[in-house]
Design the sequence.
């Protein structure tokens, strides 16, 4: 059921509303079962049982063992723990100092890698991507070697929707025994990731992208992966991530993940129909537009474009005033006049990259909402283009 009144929410890649069944699962752990999972007494035991049940649920869905799941505070923290933890450990142990990432990563990966190059003696190298932002496996084969500390690649791209060939990339890394991290923060809501231990060593998740609460995430760390704890303290999460666990949010994350990977996956063909309606309509109705990301190998809910002669932020403001909540890239960048690094990374000229729009659908999106959107968008684009002609005095 859509609970947003007259407003039409088309920004599910930024965040999702918490499913009411998730809220219900979380509630007891705020008051009745509020214990600290590290405490010895019954209150602690109850909290610990809930924590371990949540861990087992997520492990079962991924087809891995529960001791391979570490809870964190968000997708960003999971990405940081993966990159820093593994790269530091492999540098200390083997002198490995190269970090390989794609040029289309989320800032949680790209800015982390950049800081490790600027301050911690690592060399960051970018993998080659095509014009859809898909990493070229042959290029990875060429550059990978034992001195690579970690390879990190985004699974489903948050800005352009493309789905990377992560299984193939992961196999290449495994052949060289180089740890492979996949940022699965966006893909977890849309793709089955069961059996990921066969091709990856670390995978990041964040609950708020799949109808769970904000402020909780998880990192899959395959058994035997070298990793230095980044947050030290009381030794929770097997010493890899100290800090008292956020039990209600972790319980909520597990419930949300279960729903996403069962009934959520069964909705994907419906989302694809709605997404394709938007893509086809925009391409047919609006001149000077380009779809960003792969036309078919993309997240089911994701449509993204650049428009000639349009200021993306102005478009967002007009869309908002007309009742549509969209984004011009990742949520963190909204309002930032610099062109997106991801769009530049796939070869879009800076001026055109400033005219970007991301429309992401979710389980509450209706065909009627999509129809309203495809009618409104060309009118608003025209309005902006006409306004800029007036400003230029043409
Ligand atoms: C691909 C990707 N990675 C990481 C993150 C960061 O996740 P969080 O918001 O949970 O910190 C996001 C959030 O937009 C994302 O889309």
Sequence:
């Amino acid at each position: 059921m859509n609970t947003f009144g007259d407003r039409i929410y088309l920004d599910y890649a930024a965040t999702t509303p918490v499913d009411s069944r998730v809220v219900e699962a979380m509630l007891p752990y705020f008051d009745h079962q509020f214990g600290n999972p590290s405490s010895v007494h019954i209150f602690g035991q109850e909290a610990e049982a809930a924590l371990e049940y949540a861990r087992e649920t997520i492990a079962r869905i991924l087809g891995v063992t529960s001791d391979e799941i570490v809870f964190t505070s968000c997708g960003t923290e999971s990405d940081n723990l993966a990159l820093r933890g593994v790269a530091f450990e492999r540098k200390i142990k083997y002198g490995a100092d190269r970090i390989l990432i794609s040029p289309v990563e989320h800032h949680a990966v790209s800015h982390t890698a950049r800081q490790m190059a600027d301050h911690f003696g690592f060399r960051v190298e970018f993998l080659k991507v095509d014009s859809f932002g898909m990493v070229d496996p042959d290029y990875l084969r060429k550059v990978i070697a034992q001195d690579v500390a970690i390879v990190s690649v985004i699974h489903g791209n948050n800005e352009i929707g493309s789905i990377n060939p992560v299984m193939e990339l992961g196999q290449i890394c495994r052949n060289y025994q180089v740890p492979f991290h996949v940022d699965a923060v966006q893909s977890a809501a849309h793709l089955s990731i069961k059996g990921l231990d066969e091709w990856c060593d670390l995978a990041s998740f964040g609950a708020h992208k799949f109808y769970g609460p904000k402020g909780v995430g998880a990192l899959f760390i395959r058994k035997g992966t070298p990793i230095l704890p980044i947050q030290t303290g009381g030794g929770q999460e097997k010493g890899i991530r100290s800090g008292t666990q956020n039990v209600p949010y972790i319980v909520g994350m597990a419930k949300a993940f279960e729903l996403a990977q069962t009934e959520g996956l069964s909705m994907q063909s419906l989302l694809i129909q709605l997404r394709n309606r938007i893509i086809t309509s925009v391409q047919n109705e609006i001149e000077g537009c380009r779809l960003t990301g792969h036309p078919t190998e993309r997240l089911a809910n994701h449509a993204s474009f650049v428009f000639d002669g349009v200021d993306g932020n102005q478009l967002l403001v007009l869309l908002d005033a007309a009742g549509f909540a969209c984004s011009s890239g990742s949520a963190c960048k909204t309002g930032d006049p610099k062109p997106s690094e991801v769009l530049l990374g796939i070869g879009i000229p800076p001026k055109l990259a400033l005219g970007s729009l991301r429309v992401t659908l979710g389980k509450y999106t209706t065909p009627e909402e999509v129809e309203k959107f495809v009618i409104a968008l060309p009118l608003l684009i025209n309005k902006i283009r006409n306004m800029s002609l007036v400003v230029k005095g043409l």
